[in-house]
C-alpha cells in the first residue's frame, strides 16, 4: 500500500508523512505525549525508510528493465589521456550532462502533486506520462492493479 501511495501523483511521500503523523498522534499515550517536533521527526523517519525501500525496488526494475540503456541514465564515456588533469576532470563532467541529472524517480518525487483533477484515473495518468517516467509507469501499472484487486476483495 505504501508503494501505491507513492505512485499516486496526488499523494506521493507528502501524504505518507501526513498519514504517519496522524497515526502517531492517534496512538500516542495520553500520559506520555510526544512533542510536535518528535512526531514530525518520527513520521519523517518512517517516510524516509519507505522511500529508501521504494528506491531499491525502483533500482531493481531499472536494472531488469527492457528499457533502452540510454533512457535509464547510462552515460557516454569521455576519455581524457591525462588522468591527473584538473581541467580534464572538468571536461569529463561537463561533456556528460547526464552525470548530474536526477533519476526518473527523483524527478517524479520532486515534482508537485497533481491536484484539482476531476474524476482522476491513476492508470490513465500513468499511461499519459509513460514517456516521462518509463520505469515508474511499468511499476505503477503492476502495483496499482495488484492494490486494486486486493482492495476490492477485502471490501
TrEMBL record:
Residues 104-147 form the HAT C-terminal dimerisation domain. GO terms for molecular function: protein dimerization activity. Pfam families: Dimer_Tnp_hAT. This is HAT C-terminal dimerisation domain-containing protein. It comes from Lactuca sativa.
Amino acid at each position: 500500500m505504501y508503494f501505491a501511495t507513492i505512485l499516486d501523483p496526488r499523494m506521493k511521500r507528502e501524504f505518507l508523512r501526513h498519514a504517519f503523523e496522524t497515526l502517531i498522534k492517534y496512538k500516542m499515550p495520553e500520559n506520555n505525549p510526544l512533542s510536535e517536533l518528535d512526531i514530525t521527526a518520527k513520521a519523517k523517519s518512517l517516510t524516509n525508510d519507505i522511500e529508501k525501500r521504494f528506491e531499491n525496488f525502483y533500482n531493481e526494475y531499472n536494472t531488469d528493465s527492457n528499457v533502452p540503456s540510454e533512457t535509464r541514465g547510462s552515460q557516454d564515456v569521455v576519455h581524457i589521456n591525462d588522468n591527473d588533469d584538473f581541467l580534464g576532470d572538468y571536461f569529463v563532467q561537463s561533456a556528460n550532462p547526464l552525470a548530474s541529472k536526477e533519476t526518473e524517480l527523483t524527478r517524479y518525487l520532486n515534482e508537485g502533486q497533481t491536484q484539482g483533477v476531476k474524476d482522476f484515473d491513476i492508470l490513465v495518468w500513468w499511461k499519459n506520462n509513460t514517456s516521462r517516467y518509463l520505469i515508474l509507469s511499468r511499476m505503477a501499472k503492476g502495483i496499482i492493479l495488484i492494490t486494486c484487486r486486493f482492495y476490492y476483495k477485502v471490501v
